[in-house]
Amino acid sequence: MSEKRLAIDIGGTFADFVLLDEDSGSVTLEKEPSPKERLTDHIFRGMGRLDVDLTDLDMVIHGSTVVINTILQEVGSRIGLITTQGFRDVLGLGRGNRPEVYNLLYKPPTPLIPRYLRLEVPERLDHKGNVITPLDEEATRRAIERLRAREVEGIAVCFLHAYANPEHERDVRRIAGEVYPEAHVSISSDITGEFREFERTSTVALNTYVMPSVAAYLAGLEERLSLGGFQGGLNIIQSTGGLTTSEEARRMPIRTLESGPAGGVIGAVALGKQLDEPNLIATDVGGTSFDVALILDGRPFEKSETYVNKRPVLQPTIDITSVGAGGGSIAWLDDSGGFRVGPLSAEADPGPVCFGKGGTEPTVTDAHLVLGRINPRNFLGRRMELDVAGAKAAIQGRIADPLGLSLEEAAHGITHLADTNMIHAIRRVTIERGHDPRDFTLLGYGGGGGLFAASLAREMEIGKTIIPVNPAVFSAWGILNSDFREDVVRTTVMPTAALSVEELLEMFADLADVAADKLAASGLAAERARFVRALDMRYEGQEHTVKVPLPSADDFQAGGMPLLQSLFDQLHERMYAHASPGTPTELVNLRLSAIVESGKPSILEIPRGTGDGGEALKSDRRVYFRDERDAVTCPVYDRERLGAGDAFRGPAIVEEWNATTIVHPGQRLGVDDYGNLIITEEE
Q1: What's the rounded Cα separation, in Å, for the pair 455 and 146?
Q2: What's the rounded mean pLDDT across residues 454-465?
Q3: Number of other CB atoms surrounding residue 220 within 10 Å
C-alpha cells in the first residue's frame, strides 16, 4: 500500500500544499491565501482543492509561522516567571551592555514578563549541579498561587545552573500541576542544556509566551483533521529542518521558530545533491520577506543562538537571514521624502492593490505588473485577474507624482529598491562572512523567486542561477525531504587537554541515550537513528566558540585529541581568518543530533524538448527592463511545455501557474534533465 504524505507551508501571503504519493512518485500542488484570521479554514480549503481523502493520508507535515509571528507582533499570552532567589531581574538587566555600540538611541526590548509577574523562591545549585540550598516547596506553592491569582496563562521556570541538575525545576512543574493544573508550564532544563542565565531565561520565557497560542492552533488543526477521518501523524518542521511530533511542538514551540523557511533550505540541500551543486545561496522570495541561507559542501550553516526582536533564543537553528522584502512589500515615502520599500507588507489581506481586495498601498507585485513582467490574466492559475489600472493609479499617486517620476521610472525604482534590500541580505551571509558569492550558485524559489533571481545574480556577479521545478511551493516540497531529529546539548566547560578520547566518547554516549529516549517518547525507533556529534570549543580566555564536528570514531581513535585540536584551528582560521596553533583550548558544549530518516520524494527526469523551446512559445508582450529605456517585445514561454535541453536567449518570460521567471537581456536560459531552469550570463 502506498504512503501518502501532505506538506503544508504557511507563508505571509499564501499557504502552499504538496501531496506526495510515494508509490507512484506523483506530486500534486496547491496554493491558498493565508490570512491570519481564519487560517485553519483556509488550510482546509486548500486541502479540499487537492481532492484528497483524509482517511488515505498517512502523514501531514506542517511548516508554521505561528511562533515567530506571535513574538514579532508581541501578541503572546500573559505569563509569569519563577526563578532563583536574587535573580528576579535577569530579564530586565540582560547582559548589561549596549549591543549596538554606535547607536546612541538604542533601547533594549521591554521584558515580555513584567516585574510583578517575576517571582523568586529559595533554592540554589552550584555550577556542577550540587544542591547548596534545597527548594522551598511551600514558597513555591505560594508563588504559583500568586501567579494564578494574577491570571497568568503560563509559567516559565528558570533556576540558576538548572542545566547541570534539573530536579528543582521538575519539582516546580510537579507542584504547578497540583496547584494550577490549567497553566502551561515550561522549564528551562527541558528547553536547553546550555549555560548563560540571561539567554536561558529569555528562551524559556519566549517558549512559554507562545505555548497557549500554539497549543490552541495545533489542537484545533488536529481536531479538524480527526473529524475528517485522518488517522495518521501530524508532524511539525523545526528550525533545524528536522521533524518533530505535534505533541512535542506544543510542549516546546520555540523549536519551530524558523519552521517555514527551514523547509526551503532542506529542499535546497536535496536538490543540490541531485544536481551536484554543493555550494548554493538559497533565496526564498515570499509575500512578506526574503530569506537567504548559505549551503557549503552540501550542508547548511547552523547556529546555536538566534535573536527575535532583540531577544536571544538558545536553540539550534538553520542560519537564515530574513529581511522585509517580498511581493507584498509596500513602497512608501518617509517624512523627508525618501523612497523606501518594505519592511511593511500588504500580506494576504488586503494584499497588493492589484489583488482587488481593498489594498491602497503600492507593492512590489504591483510594480512588476505595471512593468509587464506579470500576466494579469494568468495569476495563480487564472483564479485571480489582476487589476492593472489600480496598480498604475497607486504607483502614480503615491510614488511617481510626489517624486516627479514617470510611472515606469517609479515602478523600476520599486523593484530596484527591493533588489537592493535582497542584495544586502546576500552580502551578510557571504561577503561579510568571508565567502565570495561568485563561488556559489544562486537558487531562487518562492512565489517571487523567479522575478528576482536573475537580477540578483547579475548584481552579485554569480555565474549560475537555478529556478527549481514548482518554485512557488518549493519550501513545502522541501518539508517532504525532512527527517525526524532530536537535539541534545550539555555544557561542560573544561580544558581539552584534561580529556581523553575514551572519556569524550563516553560523554557523547550519555547524550545519545538521552536523545534515544526522546525519540522513543515520540514513537520513533531509536535503533534507526543516526547520530551527529559536535563540540563547541574555544581558545582559553576567549568568550565565543567554534563548532567542531567530531571526527568518525576510527579517525578519532587514530588521531586522538591532537586531531580535534587541529580541526578546531582549521575552522577558527576559516571563520576568523586567523588561528593560534599550540594555544591551549577548552571544551564548552557537547552537541548531539539524533536523526531518523524518512522517505524522500523522487526527482524525476522530464522528456526532451526541441532544443529552442519553440513548442513552449505561447505569446509575446511589451516588458520594461531596467537597462532598457523603453519596453521591449518579449517572448513568453509556457514552462509546462519546455523540455530538457531547451535553451534560448533573453529577454524572455517563462510562466507557470503559480510563478513567473524573468530572463534579462544578455542572459541565457537552459532547461536541465529534471526541468530546472538554468540562467547564465552570455558573456
Answers
A1: 58
A2: 96
A3: 12
pTM score, two decimals? 0.90
Angle at 222 between CA 218 and CA 227, to 5 degrees: 150
Q: Place 1 in a pLDDT band, splitting at 50, 70 and 90.
A: very low
Three-class SS of residue 632? strand
Task: Tell me the per-residue pLDDT of 227-243, one tens digit each, with 9 for 90 and over.
Answer: 999 998 899 999 999 99
| CA 311/CA 70 separation, integer angstroms | 13
Distance CA 602, CA 341 (A): 39
Classify residue 397 by its DSSP letter. I
**Grid cell in block for residue 586:** 577548552
Angstrom distance (rounded) from CA 379 to CA 358: 18
* Domain enclosing residue 127, as ranges: 73-214
Which of 185, 312, 313, 298 has the alpha carbon at shortest distance from 256?
313
Cis peptide before 343 (omega within 30 of 0): yes
**Secondary-structure breakdown of the chain: helix, strand, coil percentages, each rounded to the nearest 5:** 35, 30, 35
What's phi and psi for 247, nearest 5 deg?
-60, -45
CA distances to 113, 119, 545 from 571, rounded to whole Å, are 39, 43, 11
What is the per-residue DSSP string for 119-151?
EEES-EE-TT--EEE---HHHHHHHHHHHHHTT
Same domain? 154 vs 203: yes
Evaluate whether residue 375 is within a structural domain. no
pLDDT computed for residue 674 by the predictor: 96
Nearest to 313 by CA among 303, 328, 327, 323: 303
Residues 61 and 120 in one domain: no
> Helix or strand or coil: residue 237?
strand
CATH assignment at residue 9: 3.30.420.40
For residue range 52-66, list pLDDT tens digits in order. Answer: 889 989 899 999 878
Other Cβ atoms closer than 10 A to 297: 6
From CA 402, how far away is CA 234, in angstroms rounded? 51
What are the pLDDT digits (tens) for 281-314? 999 998 888 999 999 999 999 888 898 888 999 9
Per-residue pLDDT, averaged over 156-182, amounts to 96
CA 279 to chain centre: 19
Name 323's bridge partners: 290
Alpha-carbon span 664 to 646, nearest angstrom:
17
